[in-house]
């Protein structure tokens, strides 16, 4: 995938190459359309890019970023990504704290938010343009239970106390996988779940080149080496992807 140095986790939800996008732009999302004014009392404007010290002058124009977002969110993707089935498979109670790691365009972020009326979603990504897009949707659509943050290439950015870390088509992009997984293990609460979706091996109509994929046995061993325990493996939920659930063991009593 032709991206900048942080590209390893650029697309949280799809591992296909995207269109080349130029740099530049004001870095500020366009104002909301009529009838979509932001209620500052309900959604205090606390820009995640400003918090991370990102210089907006180096960002791509929002209109160009939207071309890539449109590609990620194309309706036909639902036929094989099965987002509603995936969210149901998470078996959320509705009050959990869930991290959508490598959230990309927010494909799963806003579905998770609807499933968590008493909980919270933390959407993280290393791509500033995607973070800006998700944050803009949160503000203009008045979504009260989503926080957005810019992550680092060596840290998935899971807030302490998170119950579930959801990681869809991300790990095969990560360069420093061992450190990245170990950091995620530290951040997830004891007893919390790590849910990993990655593309299956073999020639498939969707997904990255075969050389980029991580064999399932290697993927499981890698995650277990970080301290997680495999809780379940559902190979039939998705046609082209594995669906693995791990748990962070609770501390043993002395």
Give the arrangement of secondary structure elements.
Layout: H1 48-51, H2 62-72, H3 78-81, H4 83-89, E1 97-101, H5 109-114, E2 120-125, H6 128-140, E3 146-150, E4 162-168, H7 177-187, E5 188-199, H8 216-225, E6 229-233, E7 241-247
Parallel strand pairs: 1-2, 1-4, 2-3, 4-5
Antiparallel strand pairs: 5-7, 6-7
CATH homology-level superfamily? Vaccinia Virus protein VP39
Structural Rg:
18 Å
Distance between the first and last residues' Cα: 48 Å
Number of strands: 7
Instruction: Assess the beta-strand content as a share of residues.
Output: 15-25%
- How would the global form be characterised? globular
Helical residues, percent? 25-40%
Low-pLDDT regions: 1-45
How does this model look, in words?
There is one protein chain. It contains eight helices and seven strands. By secondary structure, the protein is an alpha/beta fold. Strands 3-2-1-4-5-7-6 form a seven-stranded mixed beta sheet, sandwiched between helices. The protein has one domain: Rossmann fold, CATH 3.40.50. It has helices at 48-51, 62-72, 78-81, 83-89, 109-114, 128-140, 177-187, 216-225; strands spanning 97-101, 120-125, 146-150, 162-168, 188-199, 229-233, 241-247. The N and C termini lie far apart (48 Å). The relative contact order is 0.16. The protein is globular and about 50 Å long.
Task: Briefly characterize the structure.
The protein is α/β, with parallel strands linked by helices. Helices cover 26% and strands 19% of the residues. It has a seven-stranded mixed sheet, with helices on both faces.
């Amino acid at each position: 995938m032709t991206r900048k140095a942080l590209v390893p986790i650029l697309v949280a939800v799809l591992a296909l190459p995207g269109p080349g996008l130029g740099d530049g732009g004001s870095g500020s999302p366009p104002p909301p359309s009529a009838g979509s004014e932001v209620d500052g009392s309900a959604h205090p404007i606390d820009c995640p890019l400003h918090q991370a010290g990102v210089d907006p002058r180096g960002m791509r124009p929002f209109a160009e970023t939207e071309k890539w977002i449109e590609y990620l969110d194309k309706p036909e993707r639902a036929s094989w990504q099965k987002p509603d089935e995936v969210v149901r498979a998470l078996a959320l109670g509705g009050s959990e704290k869930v991290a959508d790691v490598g959230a990309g365009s927010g494909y799963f972020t806003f579905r998770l938010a609807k499933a968590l009326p008493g909980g919270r979603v933390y959407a993280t990504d290393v791509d500033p343009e995607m973070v800006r897009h998700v944050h803009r949707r949160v503000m203009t659509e008045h979504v009260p239970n989503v926080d957005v943050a810019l992550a680092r290439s060596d840290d998935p950015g899971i807030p302490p106390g998170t119950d579930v870390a959801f990681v869809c088509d991300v790990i095969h992009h990560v360069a420093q996988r061992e450190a990245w997984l170990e950091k995620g293990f530290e951040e997830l609460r004891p007893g919390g779940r790590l849910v990993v979706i990655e593309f299956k091996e073999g020639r498939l109509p969707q997904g990255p080149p075969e050389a980029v994929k991580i064999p399932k046995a290697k993927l499981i061993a890698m995650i277990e080496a970080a301290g997680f325990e495999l809780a379940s493996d559902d190979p039939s939920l998705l046609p082209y992807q594995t669906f693995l659930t791990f748990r962070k063991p609770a501390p043993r009593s002395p």
